[in-house]
Amino acid sequence: MTARARGSAGQHVPIAGAIEAAIAAALALVTLAVFAPVRGHQFLNYDDNAYVTEHPLVRTGLTRASVAWALTGVHHATWHPLTTLTHLLDVELYGLNAGAHLTVNVVLHTLAAVVLFLTLYGMTGARWPSAWVAALFAWHPLHVESVAWVSERKDVLSGLGWMLTLAAYLAYVRRPTWTRYAAVIGVFALGLLAKPMLVTLPFVLLLLDWWPLGRVARGGSDAPAARTPGALVVEKIPLLALAIGASIVTIVAQQSAGALNSMGNSPLSFRVGNALVSYALYLWKTVWPAGLVVFYPPATELPIWKPIAGALVLLAISLLVARQARRVPALAVGWLWYLGTLVPVIGLVRQGDQALADRFTYLPSIGLFLMAAWGIPTIATRNRTPPWLAVAAGAVLIACIGGTAQQLRHWESSVTLFTHALAVDPANYVATGNLGAALGTLGRHDEALQLHRRAVELQPTNARFRVALGSALARLGRRDAAEAEYVEAVRLDPTNALAEYDLGLVRAERGALDDAIAHYRRAIALDPRYAKAYHNLGWALAERGAFTEAIPAYQQALALDAGLIAAHNNLAIALERVGRTDEALAHYAAAVALAPDEPRAHANYGALLAGTGRQAEAITEYRAALRLNPDFAEVRAALAETEAAMAAPAR
What we know:
Elements: H1 18-34, H2 48-53, H3 64-72, H4 81-94, H5 98-124, H6 127-139, H7 144-147, H8 153-174, H9 178-194, H10 201-210, H11 229-235, H12 237-256, H13 268-287, H14 305-324, H15 329-341, H16 365-381, H17 387-410, H18 414-424, H19 429-441, H20 445-458, H21 463-475, H22 479-492, H23 497-509, H24 513-526, H25 531-543, H26 547-560, H27 565-577, H28 581-594, H29 599-611, H30 615-628, H31 633-647
């Protein structure tokens, strides 16, 4: 591995040839092989439900309504239409096959690594350092979270956008034309539409102008493409404008969804201190990626020594970089890349509850890799490349592959992911609650209940954990205890729509339909897109005999989630009761189409078909119901009656 970069704006940089093509192919093949296990992974109960599995529009795939929403709507507190469109496309192509969705992530990640290698080589002419940086990016354990989590499609997609923008910028620098600059703007805009994390890219392009592109004019410089720093900044104004616009849209979207914590939630001094600690922790995790988990609980208190220690680490590295900046500009570029690209997610403005997140290093870590690839050889070996350096570089990559393989095993399912997180930190309340939810879906209700109790012990004022504990109690038939938890959840968070909905369920089970209706209405007021609340409101109204009032509630539920089978069935019943037979038949047919393995759907459809004189079709539905449930006595009797009616001679 050599540290000498041959590229600059005024020099010829070799175009990738056969060797570079072979390196790129090897990089791609190894990356695909390392991440191949994701084909057998499952969706997680942490964000994947909101992004894909339980989102009514995403589950429909590519439709006119879902595409319109993807382009204009806020998806999980962020406007990233390109990312949302890829989720829709995945569902259209693969359904809810988690392995297929994750394979797309792997392909995007692989392409990003290959483009990174080719672009760095094009900028520097340094083959092996460029390959090493790209391989670290592809195989580092810190990046498993971005690749092996369906919800982080935005990371790998925007990462590819980042690399393609760098490649387009290199093409522009080699031959500056307006069309090539327009390509830079276009690719950058697409990257922003995948994830607004790319807002720092114009800043990185300015760094690359200094090194390795050599575009910053110095005294006596005769480089034909060299410009003054001011001119280079002006050149980036269109990109900066896009970045500012994306930042404003992101802030508005997150505020509207309640995901952006107010800057007043914690003192500025605490947020600055936490940022200093996070910078140092990300450094350490890059060097020693052990104990990685999906969620790091934030500290409630921050001992003064921690931010001081973090500040001293950053200061020491900054001083070293400053001393070596002229001799090894890659150190300064890499360090400023790392510091600058982390700013949007370092915690100065809090987003979410986590203290830090491995996925936040996906692009910033490239700066550290640049420092290592070009800085270590120059400083440690005075530009000579001893054999031990190549061996050490290879050993680092092998260690990364091993660490990534191990980390991938933790991401196989919600159970494995959160079991590992609790092994790292038994007080991790998110891992506790989510593991409880995962075990509950597997029918391990007693274990789930204990975990939900533990989550409430760890976070007694967390309304979401109270609701989850209530649901676990309800599944075990302990409705009084469940109701108490829901009531407490509403007291702790009067805006919790799920708590109101679950209270409605409990009250409905008790027969207190008026109370249930009131809670369903409150849930809808808090979340006007709560399809299940509309459905259950319709059911409660229908139970009181108010079929005319129930019909619009069911219809609204289906307008929000056309896949609600029970809503189709119950709406058909209500329509049948008020004499709207043709509409009822249409909704029975929809229920059968959505749930062909549900005997009750076939039975209800058959009954109305028989009642409207369509005996042959009714017999088909009755027989389908009996194939699914041979003990369905009511249907067997209806089938016999319908067959007898068809066999009787006409009078």
